[in-house]
Amino acid sequence: PATEMEENANTSLEEDFEGQASHTGPKGVISDWRKFKLESEDGDALPPSKKEILRQMSSPHRSFSRDDKDTRERFCRKMSMQEYELIHATQEDESCLQQYRKRCMQDMHQRLSFGPKFGFLCELQNGEQFLEAVEKEHKTTTVIVHIYEDGVKGCEALNSSLTCLAAEYPTVKFCKIKASSTGAGDRFSSEVLPSLLVYKAGELLSNFISVSEQFNEEFFAVDVEAFLNEYGLLPERELPALGNGTDEPDVE
User: Fold this and answer.
1) Where does it live in the cell (predicted)?
2) How far apart are CA 33 and CA 54, in angstroms?
3) What's the CA gap between 182 and 233, in Å, rounded?
4) Four-point Cα dihedral 28, 107, 112, 237, nearest 10
5) Does the N-terminal peptide bond of residue 194 adopt cis geometry, omega within 30 degrees of 0?
6) Which segment, 65-69, 108-112, 130-134, is predicted with the most confidence on average?
7) What is the domain class of 1-61+75-113 according to CATH?
8) pLDDT in tens, 84-129
9) pTM, full prediction
10) Which residue ranges make up each domain of the chain?
């Protein structure tokens, strides 16, 4: 009876372990894939024997008694062959694997995407709003402020470029403010405009004056993006939404 209770306790622990959301390491990834495959299989179309094999494969932590060494060895060999046949099936398997990859990418992206989101170019009305945007933002958020003035060459094009980049990099806070509204207009004459100030955790990282001189006469968002990336001021681009259709590009 004591041995039976111990085995039941071990089984319960194993079930709790297998019920965790995700595994780490190569064996954990394989186990996650097997479970995903089992969940995505059509229960009516799948033969009972094959479904049972998949169920056993998705629970690799089950143990055998010490006296059943031969059975364990035969089981391992059998599972190895069955696993090969199931994992290396043709188009249906490949489609399932593609779906699994996409789900993993979505899960990873969701875990890595933290902090506030913006997605637009914010207009600051005065110096107080400027200070709040810089000093009261999340410490991991990059704040890029464009100081401009109407009629100054390059300012309109830079505002258009930053509007595009704000949508591409929603974790970056893009702002614009007129030099005359900062309360320090004498420091931002038309000769130094357009200017870009980049902050993080309230600290000034970079200060670019007359930044349009870094570009051609006509410039676009891609040019500003390349310039900011050159100084390491932009994060990795946001991943596009991953659909469930088979016509989506494969994710390696």
Assistant:
1) Cell projection, Cilium, Photoreceptor outer segment; Cytoplasm, Cytosol; Nucleus; Photoreceptor inner segment
2) 11
3) 23
4) 120
5) yes
6) 130-134
7) mainly alpha
8) 566 555 556 667 777 777 777 766 665 555 667 889 999 999 999 9
9) 0.54
10) 1-61+75-113, 122-231
